[in-house]
Specification:
- This protein has 490 residues and is an alpha+beta fold.
- The protein has one domain.
- It is 14% helix and 27% strand.
- The chain is built from 10 helices and 16 strands.
- The strands form 3 sheets. Strands 3, 4, 7, 8, 10, 14, 15 and 16 form an 8-stranded antiparallel beta sheet that branches. A 6-stranded antiparallel beta sheet has the order 1-2-13-12-11-9. Strands 5-6 form a two-stranded antiparallel sheet.
- Strand 3 and strand 4 form a beta hairpin.
- Helix 1 packs across helix 9 and helix 1 packs across helix 10.
- The two termini are 44 Å apart.
């Protein structure tokens, strides 16, 4: 790979992430307001050509929500918000406006299970009162579970034409979400049980796809405690051998596999995508919550409260005062945040924190090397034929799939152009790719005079390693969640 192309690819990755050394927490609790609403907090977004054998004609889209789930978090565990609208948006003409939106709505199904006590049937306090699975239809012992509906909207997310996606596996227009991994006594074979919730989906106007929504093991490696203790780790060291702070956490995934032909326009194979969650504008608390009435009444227009495309942007790029605004914004309005890209603070913070170790921030402003790649994609890699500058994850769907076993965790930087920044696969180490660019890997060495980027060739690392072997090779790729109970067969 030529040096210019190598640096260009590095820049794309960094522009997408723009992270500092160690600041690798993806999008967990990244803005003040979203900390109050964890059920609608988007944590990671993935988009890639499916690399499951025989499925390379599809794109997999995965939106993760509800961060930092402790597996033992009973008795309620981690249902999604039945009053929220979860969406995945696709722009296939480069104008920074969604052309296709997939909308997920969740509903609680309650059975009000009881047990007889002294001749009286009394409601139980637990999620389940017996074994569950392995079939998706084994719900008799579940006190409460969730179902969801899925729609495809073409055009504007609120005013476009919407059509219902059908469940080709079970019939009808609803899909079941598996209960979280309570433990092996409750769910003896969780992988089989969860696998029974991968459904064939009839997408109007498209060939058939697949969908899965459910708990998965957190796949993003990060040492949160060290990061937010003024990056209390060594960005110029080697990847850590010990587990990251998120190694014992789960997350909830909304995973879709959609035919490429359903997502692209006729003239351009490049698509951009992002996920968002919205709540109703008003909420009135119920002073006497009970049964169907619930704890609140919601009304008014849908209001976006979470947004995620490229990883880490709101967490470590956007200034604290604008984080809530970014979560409420749309890509078409991203010009308002341009200063955070042209004059990034993270390299300066790294120099302050690690100057004694040799960290020197690039001294070339404005950072046009980041602006171009961050907002438009890279020509010949993942740039649409016509593009309006905006932040989202972009994928050239015409790039051949790299089969499992041959993927580079460094994506395009490692010579694997099917990986980040050309979309993002679970095993792409977006952090290490990005760090090196933030510190100047894209900026060419001068022929003479002062060097504006003396750290361009240093192997910065976040201290945590990830690659494709940490994930499954079949849809939905993210692995079985950790069980809530440690008792049982490992």
């Amino acid at each position: 790979m030529s040096v210019p192309l190598k640096r260009t690819m590095l820049a794309v990755a960094t522009a997408g992430c723009l992270v500092s050394a160690g600041s690798m927490a993806s999008s967990h609790r990244e803005a003040p307001a979203i900390t109050e609403r964890p059920k609608v907090d988007a944590t990671d977004f993935y988009m890639f050509r499916s690399y499951e054998a025989g499925r390379d004609g599809f794109v997999t889209l995965i939106a993760n929500y509800l961060p930092l789930q402790d597996p033992y978090g009973g008795p309620n565990y981690f249902d999604l918000d039945s009053d929220a609208l979860y969406e995945i948006h696709v722009d296939n003409d480069g104008d920074a406006v969604e052309d296709i939106t997939f909308q997920f709505r969740f509903a609680d199904v309650q059975q009000d299970l009881t047990v007889p006590v002294n001749g009286v049937d009394v409601a139980v306090p637990l999620k389940n009162i017996g074994g569950i699975g392995p079939g998706a239809d084994d719900t008799a012992a579940l006190n409460v579970r969730q179902q969801y509906t899925l729609k495809i909207v073409r055009g504007d997310r609120r005013t476009g034409m919407d059509q219902t996606v059908t469940n080709l596996t079970a019939g009808g227009s609803t899909f079941d979400k598996p209960v979280d991994n309570i433990g092996e006594k409750s769910i003896p074979d969780y992988p089989t049980y969860a696998g029974a919730h991968v459904f064939d989906a009839g997408i109007p106007g498209c060939a058939d796809g697949r969908v899965f929504v459910g708990q998965r093991k957190e796949g993003f490696a990060v040492n949160l405690g060290e990061i937010f203790d003024l990056v209390n780790t060594n960005p110029l060291g080697s990847p850590m051998a010990e587990a990251s702070d998120t190694a014992d956490k789960n997350v909830t995934s909304l995973a879709l596999e959609v035919p490429i032909s359903c997502l692209t326009s006729e003239s351009d194979p490049v698509i951009g995508a992002w996920t968002s969650a919205s709540l109703r504008q008003a909420r009135v608390l119920n002073p006497a919550p009970s049964g169907a009435k619930g704890d609140a009444v919601h009304g008014g227009a849908w209001t976006q409260v979470s947004r995620l495309g490229m990883p880490l942007v709101n967490e470590v790029v956007i200034g604290l005062k604008d984080k809530d605004q970014f979560n409420a914004s749309e890509p078409k309005d991203d010009g308002q945040f341009a200063t955070y890209v042209t004059n990034p603070t993270l390299p300066e913070l790294l120099e302050i924190l690690f100057g004694d170790a040799g960290a020197v921030a690039p001294n070339l402003f404005p950072r046009t090397d980041l602006v171009a790649t961050f907002l438009t994609g890279i020509d010949g890699i993942n740039q649409p034929a016509s593009v309006q500058a905006s932040e989202m994850l972009r994928l050239d769907t015409s790039t051949a799939v790299t089969a499992s076993g041959g993927q580079s965790e460094l994506g395009a930087l490692g010579g694997d152009t099917a990986g980040f920044p050309n979309g993002r696969r679970p095993g792409d180490d977006v952090v290490d790719i990005a760090l090196r660019v933030v510190m100047g890997a894209l900026i060419p060495a001068p022929e003479s005079g002062d060097d504006p980027a003396p750290n361009r060739d240093l192997a910065f690392t976040d201290g945590a390693y990830v690659d494709e072997t940490d994930f499954d090779i079949t849809f939905p790729y993210l692995t079985t969640p950790l069980p809530g109970s440690p008792n049982g067969t490992p």
